[in-house]
## 1
Amino acid sequence: MTGVALSALLGSGLVVAAAAPSTAAPSTAARHSATQNPTTAQNSNGSWTVDDPGRSTLTAQLDLDSAGELHLAVDRGSAPVLLPGRLGIRTDQHDLTTGLRLVKRQDRTVHESYRMTTGKQLRTSATMREATFTFRGADGARLGVAVRVSDDGVAYRYLLDGKGPVTVTGESSTFELPTDADAWVQPYSPSYETERTQTTAGAANAAQPTSCTGDTCAFGYPTLFEVGSTYVLLTEADVDGRYSGSHLDHVAGSGAYSVALADDAPVTSNGPLATPWRTAIVGSLDTLVGSTLVNDLAPPAKFQDTSWIRPGVDDWSWLSDGSSPGDFDRQKDFVDYAAAHGLPYTLVDAGWQASWVPELVRYARAKGVDVILWFAWTDLKTQQQRDTWFAKLKEWGVAGVKVDYMDSDAQSTFQWYDAILHDTAKDKLMIDFHGATIPRGLQRTWPQVMSVEAVRGEENGQNPTRDIFLAFTRNIVGSMDYTPTWFSRPNRQDSLAHELALPVVYESGWTSLGDNPEGFAAQPVAESYLEQLPTTWDETHLVSGGPGPQPAGDRQAVIARRSGDRWFVGGILAGASDTMTAPLGFLGKGTWLVETIGDSDGQLQRTVRTATAKDTLSVPGAANGGFVALACPATKGRTDCENPVVTAPATSLTLDPSTATAGPGAKVGIDAAFELPQGTALRQVRLTVDRDRLPVGWSATGRDVTAGSLRAGRALDGHWTVTVGKDQPGGEVDVPVVATYADPAGGKAPPVHVEQVVRVSVPLHGTVYASDQPFLTETNGYGPVERDQSNGEAGGQDGHPLTIDGTVYPKGLGMNAPAQVQIDLQGRCTRFEAHVGVDDETGGQGSVTFTVLGDDGRQLASTDVVRGGQSAVDLSVDTTGVHTLSLAVGDGGDGKNYDHADWGLARLTCVN
């Protein structure tokens, strides 16, 4: 390979994927001081070391043997931690695993200084020593190996400097452990929702046989080992659409854990290529828990303005109340709970309806609560789907999305991650990935990522031992969407205090609380603590505990996290009741007020004491129990550490009229009055028509109304004239009138947004397409009904051009039998016409019937059974006087498989 110098691949130590274009300048600049020390070696073998920046703890040793094969070992102090493990990479053109010889070595110091929006440490400054070794293979091809050593670990990556496409067929990357090293392993699954087990490096296959083929088993990252007194956590960093994710393969009885690409498939990328970092976090358990190495190795933020990103706690109804996401009134209960307790978000999971989400969002925002919406990833798979949905979400005022079911480490899935991350950043939508792969520095590069599941969380049942393991494995590498605190769970396997401690022990930018309002109300002590809970931290420390002895016994984890001048401590226990201890050395100087909540006879009990950094907190722990603590500086007269919970006051925004009927070009006058009935005066108040959300061609005249202060009982009045667009088709349009005011909570909280809409009904006129009209009701046999495309798959907007027997229709509806939509014709349309048939995407399969119904289900027209490959059938139906038109599809009597039914050019002729 020739062309670009290998050192240029690293540049600032980062390579940005072409598949993920930057939305803006990086948020923080990584500063690098480089010392170039080329060294040329003529011999075919040798040994080279790279030390940590202090040259006192970690050493990586790279060896090239007489066969030209590379090995990497890691020592901590004078003790081996990782034994020599193979390195190398194979492409479709070159075998760079053997026959190598060193050409040169370059050394530099890499310093990363950056700020996060999420995580265990918001401000990070990290220094790493880096050596880049350039080798030539037997056929003359060049291979770069970059090795970085910091005070908390070692990482390496391969550099291929050729231009044009490069296809990697596999790696020889191997981590070699002593076979008797204690190990905490997880069978590999792309969802990372399998259970972890404690075993040894050599015996892991016997402990977790579910991911095995023959004598080889696959294990997921991050994987923890204990070698002597040192812990090693294996994972990877900086993975995007240039590459695929990977996992570890292990042959029974060996100590070798080899990197295997997802699905054992090759990856192809445009060169020059820098592969992901193969990463080992190394040190004490406290070093691992506090490590930022995975983020240190990731590219800087893709954009600078993060003012719209706001981590926080949400209440999430699905876990405790599975049907509630489809119930508008029940979702309002969760909004009310969030508002009353100062939670910034409510999360509406699978089952929500587009017909009522805008109203729910308006209801929530008026109370100072933002809404997060769940999506299956298939609904956001294509650019068209994302453009369509994200435009709607911005119009509705949704703050972010939770996207589910990716369950893949394939390169194509990482390319999708690149695309949706680019799009959510552009549209200023925060995102949580569920059913996802583990984070690999993602949250540094894309600051709008609030959390990632990639864990067997509370929704998959409870396991207190798992909870301990996760504190020392998965949660170390990035935010973890575990969904804790289901206090009212039937047959709960842990104590109340254990549940309460989980959102402190586990870091997550969005923490989704799992109980319902009634369950929380039954635990007022827990409610008070959760009202105080941040989700981002200034520093994090392991206070005590570990993943447990072998054979398994009692296990504990006590973690302290600081936010401002307050420390939050969470402790969890797996096993029999025991005393949990927390040395308070992390507190620093002075006297501190310490509130502790623990278990007492099946209830939560709160105690308060003063302490200093010399003291140790001892809390009796129930079986599978836990505790939490909150510490703040002890000042004169202070009796607790709680900051007041400030909520948005009840306000009133009235519009006159609330509904109107107007044709194209007509004008509608709108009067608005915004009032605070009672309470402290509002500040920085603005009342306006949201012109940015009016349809193209519409306009609004009239001044915005503002007030620096609005006292209780005073109204802020405004008047606007809205003109309907001359080309506006018939239907309903919501004109939003918005009042905003400074959040009483202050700080960086965004303004409270109070909104009402005037629903303007534009009479149907001329030629109207069914696909442009709102549906009164909608059912479909597979996925949603599609507009202007075929049914496609289960996701929304995932179809193809409507095509029947080779004829393409630019407008129409795509359904899958049995299906039906209802459309309001306002009694103004005289004829419905369509060309109907089975879409060509079924390959000639499928059989359906088409039926047109009027008011009260009166049949207006129907077809015989229409089969795949058959020409379109023309429908022309008199709809004079009809108010509700129903378009229905039947399955032809043989089930719904392949029954993709198209209503091509479905249109209505209406009076002018």
## 2
Amino acid sequence: MPERTHSTPPRTLAEALRTRDDASLEALLRARPDLLTPVPGDIGALATRAGTRASVIRALEHLDRFTLQTAEALAVAPDPAPYPALLALMGGDDCDPVVEAELPGAVGVLREQALIWGADDRLRLVRTARELLAPSPTHPSPTGLGPTVAEATVGMSPGRVQEIVTAVGLSGTHDSVSAVAALTALFTDRQRMSALLDEAPVESLNVLSRLVWGPPYGEVTADPTRPVRWLRDHGLLLPASARTVVLPREAALHLRAGRAHRSTEPRPPTVAPARDYGPQAVDAAAAGQAFVALDTIEELLKDWNEGGPAVLRSGGLSVRDLKRTAAALDCTEQLAAFWVELAYAAGLLATDGGGGTSRALKATGDDERFAATPFYDAWLESPAQDRWADLVTAWLTATRTPGLIGGLDAKGRALSTLGPDLDRSAAPEVRRRVLALMATLPAGTAPEPESLLARLRWERPVRGTTAGRGAGQSSAADIAAARYSHGATAVGDLRSRIAQWTMNETELLGITGRGALATHGRALLGGAEPGGGAGPTAAPTSAELTTARARAAEALAPLIPVPLDHVLLQADLTAVAPGPLERPLAELLGVAADIESKGGATVYRFTGGSVRRALDAGQTASDLHAFLATHSRTPVPQPLTYLIDDVARRHGHLRVGAASSYVRCDDDAVLSEILADTRSQSLRLRRLAPTVLAAQADPGELLEGLRSMGFAPAAESAEGDVLITRADAYRTPPRSAPVPVPEGPPVPDDTLLGAALRAIRAGDTAATVVHKPVPEQGDLPRTPAAETLATVQAAAMTGAALWIGYVNADGAASRRVIAPVRVEGGFVTAYDHTADDVRTYPLHRITGVAELTDDPA
């Protein structure tokens, strides 16, 4: 291979990459981590992978709007394109100074990511990107431009080409090639093109105005109108098919004053403030909502404490169970789905796999169902700020997207809560970016939602919605995603919908208050500069996430109200909790009374049924009296004392057991009263003895039936003891939180980047530099063991390639070219260029080493 000099322009992308230094290649691999999976063998393999369709699509989808517009302009520019030609396409005849100032940065990003290569006088867009962005009859350009005159006249008869040349006032030529070149020169000459258009009828100019910004294609009849016929005769409309014409690119650029795009956006839109509420008001509102979020999650899992709904055969929660859960939480079904998904993402609930653990009286059966996990019990014992931090950290990193619930998947099936197909890998990045953009505003200031969405759309535009793109050009995945949302802002703009959901969810979780980011919400971003760059916020490492979580919990702690140890009893059989209660008090009060209303203060009401529920749970009348006297700041009202004593006096007077079931009572008059009551007919009772009645109903049905008649029976064991019907917790086997689905390969760390670059450089050296013949197999390098170890270690640090003599386990000797990556434990791990693979060799089997550039003989 002939040696290249720095003055010789690169002829391929691989040659351009070889001229880069390590820092530039590291930037490429960080921006496009998919190129490292697996590690390329040399620069040529890296260039090939960088030009594959999947990799180029991923890279284009991560460009901001202006950089993508720059790539789109290069797709319709001559190949190669000098920088002035690109600037003319981006800025037009009257170039905006802002475009001129920002264009070098966009070109630098494209060059860094290996989407373009070559010097500024010969900019080349990689072939795959040009194919994706360049116009064609089935794929109009994002710029709205059509094919060139040369491309549009392919297949046209020479006579027809000569007719067009003559019609526009040009001299006839001997061949079609020169005729097309003359027509192209006319359309690119501003003065002559203006003179030609001055001759056009007004109606013809109106036709051109409808095509100039795209789509450039139009249908014509067999007998076109006079304006269309004039355009066709003068080559301003060229045939694309039997009934379709197209506006040539050169003519469209003249009509656009040289611009490839109707409008360019060289700088990101700013996030506008909506209203300043003040930091204290925002923090107070957010902290209050954070406490509501914790209370809602506890209420949800308390409702599922004895075993939640069954799992659908296709996975997920049924619509009926979601409605019941929404009624229990007193919220909408969509909001209930969000809380359920949040508890699932935090590892607080999961499926039991048909084998949960419970000590409950009634078996739950073998059907798979949702239930709280063992982690939930430990979570309940944590301080409120730590529990909140667990929830928001899980939400921030989860790829499951509750906003999709209720929509349809790509196959038209309904997406259910806790079901499959809810993962969207872009969700964590969008959530963090929304918080980062909110953090750019002063503390206590809420952003204008539409300006925030506009900024996000600039940072990651949807392919197919840039200026001039024709309808129907979105990808199939984007179109399918659009069906998930109700009232989407743009076809396929899933990121905008996730951002809208994020703004609502941050308010529900107490990360924001009144739409503004709270102090503890800012702490979730860690030490990163909020909104410091135009691009997306990088995903945090686990250590950074742990630190941010601790900071957020610490910031929230002073804002969380201290739990109270008292209530206010009132004469109307109600108890008022003026704030959050300590857990033991809240749990017992929740059993002995019914919640009547919530808000700043919770109102509990004592009824005969609630008192009986407390007695069924093992409490006695004296326990309840002592409990109320201890925890009430007001005297215990006499009506409440009488209610407890009256229910306790009748509680357990009747005993129910299994015969199928039976009722026994020491007072035979009570049993006679039951038999005489017409409401007992459904229980099919009969007297077995003066103090015993038998029933064909099961014990549970008999208990409920007698209670509905106004009695207070107690369940009885086989030994005659009263059964305490405390609701034992039903828990799943140990389960971990769902693992987020990554958007792509993770960004490599410094260690992996260094090792990969050494392997790539060494492989490229072996492929392009080494020209010496391999010596005979018997002539192996011979070096002492200490020298061998030192040379290999030095090569691992510098990235140098080595010849080694190696003897395998069978005694066969060979020579190999390796690029050492790591030396430890008596082994060397290296990229073996002979085998084109990464291998590990025992050092004691290496007979010797020699520098690659040295003469091994």
